[in-house]
Amino acid sequence: MADVERTVLIIDDDAVILRLLEVNFEMEGFFVRTAADGEEGLEVALAEAPDIIISDVMMPRMNGLELVTSLKHDPATATIPVILLSAKAQASDIKAGLDAGADDYVTKPFEPHDLVERVTKLLRFQ
């Protein structure tokens, strides 16, 4: 079970994945905020300072790599852990995500429970 009122921001342009993750994290006791693309996600992150962010890589308007770069370069959001979630599973894709500043990189398809465990583990170190 998550700590009380831990907030996860989930950013994905796929409504099915967004809802799947929202339900799974709520069942584990997280407060969940969602956004449909990187620009909206950045706005939510700046306004609400979530405890952790999960973001898709391939999205319209602002992709996940651009989002991570923006988050990590802003003192207001630089310390928020970010997990990138992507179908792009080549070693070079994972390296690019981690080099951009992501704290973890999860490839699709994924098990929602495993993602919850990774989030919980990352939050333990905060």
Kindly summarize this structure in a few lines.
By secondary structure, the protein is of the alpha/beta class. The chain has helices at 15-27, 38-48, 64-73, 91-100, 112-124; strands at residues 7-11, 31-35, 52-56, 82-86, 104-107. The protein has one domain (7-124): Response regulator (Rossmann fold).
Name the overall outline.
Answer: globular
The count of domains is 1
Which residues sit in consecutive blocks of at least 5 with pLDDT less than 50? none
N-to-C series of helices and strands: EHEHEHEHEH
End-to-end separation:
16 Å
Instruction: Evaluate the radius of gyration.
Output: 13 Å
Based on secondary structure, the structural category is alpha/beta
Average residue-wise pLDDT: 93
Helix percent reads 40-55%
User: What's the architecture in CATH terms?
Assistant: 3-Layer(aba) Sandwich
Stated plainly, the CATH topology is called Rossmann fold
Describe the fold and architecture:
This protein has five helices and five strands, in the order βαβαβαβαβα. The chain is of the alpha/beta class. It has a single domain, classed as Response regulator (Rossmann fold, 3-Layer(aba) Sandwich). Strands 2-1-3-4-5 form a five-stranded parallel beta sheet, sandwiched between helices. Strand 1, helix 1 and strand 2 form a beta-alpha-beta unit. The radius of gyration is 13 Å and the shape is globular. The mean pLDDT is 93.
Write the layout of secondary structure elements.
Elements: E1 7-11, H1 15-27, E2 31-35, H2 38-48, E3 52-56, H3 64-73, E4 82-86, H4 91-100, E5 104-107, H5 112-124
Parallel strand pairs: 1-2, 1-3, 3-4, 4-5
